[in-house]
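not sure who needs this but someone in the group chat was asking about DUF7669 domain-containing protein from Rossellomorea pakistanensis so here u go. i didnt clean anything up, its just raw.
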Amino acid sequence: MPLFTGGIWLMDKKKRTSCREEMLQVVQQLVKAKGKNKFSTQEVLDEMERAGTIYKDSTIRTHLTSKYCVGTKKHHQTVYDDYERIGHGLYALVHSPDTM
């Protein structure tokens, strides 16, 4: 899990994680901190940057809005249903952190 310190999420630099794993960790912590299962693409980009991600914004956006999103056209060989689109640029975890 990332470590929250001084308003910044820090990823464990010793263990290399996939973009999906890193994003799920950051989003779960973001949802817990906000107290509601609703977040924007920009919030995810900002929090992943604060966590020290190695992934480009374009990769994060593609994963959130397409590759890991319920109900989108499947343009990728491997897809997951981690997030659902609930509005323009707004998403929710399919499984809230309390049920994971």
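also Strands lie at 3-5, 8-10, 39-40, 83-87, 90-93. if thats useful
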